[in-house]
Structures are given as structure tokens and as C-alpha cells.
Write a structure and sequence with these properties.
Blueprint lengths: L10 E5 L5 H10 L9 E5 L5 E5 L17 E5 L8 H17 L4 E5 L25 H5 L7 H12 L3 E5 L4 H10 L4 E4 L2 H10 L12 E5 L5 H11 L5 E9 L5 E5 L14 E9 L3 H10 L7 E8 L3 H7 L6 E5 L8 H4 L6 E5 L1 H12 L11 E4 L13 H8 L2
Parallel strand pairs: 1-4, 4-5, 5-6, 6-7, 8-9, 8-11, 11-12, 12-13, 13-14
Antiparallel strand pairs: 2-3, 9-10, 14-15
Length: 404
């Protein structure tokens, strides 16, 4: 975290698309008065080449290339329904280079769902840092492919990015690569406080003041440390913890068992509300199989909490399975907020919008004053969700809202 203060006037927050609501909300939380679309022009030439330009007075010839001197430029990069991640990644590089070529002192990339993290290893033994010893079978899975995570980190650094901030990246290899290339200026923020606050303050699960009736579940050993920390943050001494094990027999076929190192047995969590945590979901095969397996303990509810929700058609179809009572996710991929994207899952989906939390973390990291207020997230759920509460405003409240 930063130890020196920075003048808010020396920080410029932009998006890699001009109308990105996530970037706009972050900039507003930090206190930036200018609209991000008024700070940078994101134009494309007739030959389809992208050319960003930090907006200047074209008639003023006295400050050519000087407008960003001593400034910190923050690029907020989120996925889009209209633009590929490949396209967005290239835009990040060019915006960073535009900032540095015009005198910016530092460039910070805020990318909640870090691109190319799936290709976190390569075919050579030195392609990736793992928690296990890589064998020929593991290396063969990446044979013929690029070690894309390393390449992306190197390209960002070459383009002028000095610091990268992301959310709940699952790969120890990616974390090691980015930490090395950015000399420690890589921040993988884990949303413990958001999940803990929502589980404590909402009615998504039912338990007493000591945690009786609640069980947290890690779907595999890789998620154990994260879920254990969640367990600690909740500070509910009578809550339970269970860990599953999975073995893949194919790309979409998994076998789920109770992990031999699990803290609790099935008998000890019988009838509990269960919250199963994971960092991301793509096809939904593993989570659905896990939740069906957990039905053995006759749970009251099973809530699937996931940081990165890739709302593919296949995933939506599978997770409509009644074994999952509710889905709790973040908006690291903002398209998940779209009701059409949610499809039938809107009936059991809750999205926690993290722009404020991420803006506060940004301020802490680069040394900006903390934003006013203490709220960290906003709740977005469809009125089709049975837990949705429609707030009816009184005439007095409406008068206050519309008064001068």
C-alpha cells in the first residue's frame, strides 16, 4: 500500500471504452468531477486501428505533449458485450502508451477480471510457478500454446503500465508472474469483507448469532485457504466448515467426494444452510455436481458465491438446477447485470456491485484520500427473486427527494 499522499488533482481516471459504467462509478466515488469521456477520446481510424487521445485544446500550441506531466493515469478495464477481450487488451496497451508518451508519471491498470489468466502455464518447465510439481501430462495440456499470462504482463509493462490491480485472481502462477514483472506493484484484492458483510446483514442464509445452522464449503483444496479466511472473517464460532474434492474425467465431467482433510463430516452439517465459494464459473458443471452431491445432507439452502461469473448459455442452463438455491456474485464482469444475460437465473441471482470497494482500495494503494461514507457495495437483484423487497416511498419521502 502507498505510504505517501498524492494530490487528487494529479489523478486522472479513464475507461478503455467511453461509456463504461464501472469506470464512471469508480471515478465518481474517488471524486473526479470530469466525465471520463471528456478526458480521453477513443477514436478508431478508417483502417480500424485504435488511436486514443487525451483531449487537449487543439488551438493551444504552448502545451504540446505536456498536459499529463506528473499525473497518475488510472485505466479501468472491464469486459464488454460489444468488444472482445483481445480488443480491450490492445486498447489498454495503447492508452497506457499515450499516457506515458504525454508525460504521465505513473499508469495504473485496474482490471477486475485479469485477462489471459486461463493460460497461466506453458509447455516448458519454466513456464509458470505452481504449487505442485509439473509432470509431462500437465505440460502437454499447454503444448503448442503461448504462455499468454506472461506475455500479457510483459506487454503491459512495455506499454507503460506501472501497477496492476485485480480482484480474486485464482492462479498462483499468474500472481507470481505479475508480481515479478511489476516488481511487487501487483495487487490481487480478495473481497472477503463484501461477502462477509452480505452474509451477516442479509437474509440469504439463516443461522443464529453464533453461527449455528451455517456451513461454509470449499469445492476443492485450492479454495480451502480462501474459504477458511472467509470463515475467520465471519467470526461465527458455531458455524461449520467442509471441504470437497473433485476429480476430472473429462472437460465437463467431474466426480465429487468429501475431501479426507475436511474439518467436518456430512453428519455434522446435516440440515444446515450451505454457502459454497469459488473464484469463477464457466460451464457450471463442477458447481452443479458439487451442489447435487451436497443434497445428501438435506440442506435448507445452498448458496453458490462466486467472484467472476461468465454467463455462458451452457452455464445458465446448468445452474438453473434446483440444487442451487441462490447465486451470489460480483460484477467483475459487468455484463452479468443485464437481465437478458441472466436469463432464468434472474430468479435466484444477486449481484454485489463493487465499484465503491474497488475505488476505496485504489485510493489506499496510490495514496489518495479515502472517499466519504463507509459503504462498500451496492445490491442488484431482479424483482423475480423471492427475496426482493420492493421499497414503497411515502409522500413525505418523495417530497424530500424532489425538493429544492
Amino acid at each position: 500500500m502507498s505510504t505517501s499522499a498524492i494530490d487528487p488533482n494529479d489523478v486522472i481516471i479513464v475507461g478503455n471504452t467511453s461509456d463504461d459504467p464501472f469506470a464512471i462509478d469508480m471515478a465518481y466515488t474517488v471524486g473526479q468531477s470530469e466525465d471520463i469521456a471528456d478526458l480521453i477520446s477513443l477514436k478508431t481510424f478508417a483502417n480500424t486501428e485504435f488511436c486514443p487521445r487525451f483531449i487537449s485544446d487543439e488551438t493551444d500550441l504552448t502545451a504540446i505533449g505536456d498536459q499529463l506531466i506528473a499525473k497518475t493515469v488510472v485505466i479501468v478495464s472491464t469486459s464488454s458485450r460489444t468488444m472482445s477481450r483481445n480488443n480491450l487488451a490492445m486498447r489498454n496497451l495503447l492508452i497506457a502508451r499515450a499516457a506515458k508518451d504525454n508525460g504521465a508519471a505513473a499508469v495504473v491498470l485496474v482490471e477486475p477480471d485479469l485477462y489471459y489468466s486461463a493460460q497461466d502455464r506453458g509447455p516448458r518447465i519454466d513456464h509458470g510457478t505452481t504449487t505442485f510439481e509439473r509432470d509431462e501430462h500437465d505440460r502437454k495440456k499447454f503444448d503448442g500454446q503461448p504462455f499468454s499470462a506472461r506475455l500479457y504482463a510483459e506487454m503491459l509493462k512495455l506499454a507503460g503500465v506501472d501497477r496492476v490491480i485485480t480482484v480474486h485472481n485464482h492462479s498462483s502462477s499468474v500472481q507470481a508472474e505479475f508480481s515479478k514483472i511489476f516488481d511487487g506493484a501487483f495487487h490481487n484484492l480478495i473481497p472477503y469483507e463484501i461477502y462477509a458483510d452480505y452474509l451477516r446483514e442479509s437474509n440469504v442464509v439463516d443461522y443464529d448469532n453464533l453461527g449455528r445452522g451455517l456451513a461454509l464449503c470449499a469445492p476443492d483444496k485450492g479454495a480451502r485457504d480462501f474459504v477458511k479466511e472467509m470463515f475467520h472473517r465471519l467470526d461465527l464460532p458455531k458455524a461449520k466448515f467442509i471441504m470437497l474434492d473433485k476429480e476430472r474425467s473429462g472437460e465437463r465431467d467431474v466426480e465429487i467426494t468429501l475431501h479426507p482433510e475436511s474439518d467436518m463430516t456430512f453428519e455434522e452439517i446435516k440440515g444446515h444452510d450451505i454457502v459454497l465459494f469459488d473464484d469463477m464459473v464457466r460451464t457450471g458443471s463442477t458447481v452443479v455436481t458439487s451442489c447435487e452431491f451436497l443434497q445428501q445432507v438435506e440442506p435448507s439452502r445452498i448458496v453458490f458465491a462466486v467472484s467472476h461469473f461468465y454467463a455462458s448459455s451452457e452455464g445458465r442452463e446448468k445452474m438453473a438446477n434446483p440444487a442451487i438455491t441462490e447465486i451470489l456474485t460480483l460484477n467483475t464482469l459487468p455484463t452479468v447485470l443485464n437481465r437478458d444475460v441472466q436469463g432464468r437465473l434472474r430468479k435466484k441471482m444477486v449481484v454485489l456491485k463493487i465499484e465503491k470497494w474497488l475505488a476505496r482500495s485504489l485510493c489506499d494503494i496510490i495514496g489518495l484520500p479515502a472517499p466519504e461514507g463507509d459503504d462498500r457495495y451496492q445490491i442488484d437483484m431482479s424483482s423475480k427473486n423471492p427475496r426482493f423487497i420492493h421499497k414503497i416511498w411515502s409522500n413525505d419521502q418523495l417530497g424530500l427527494l424532489y425538493s429544492d
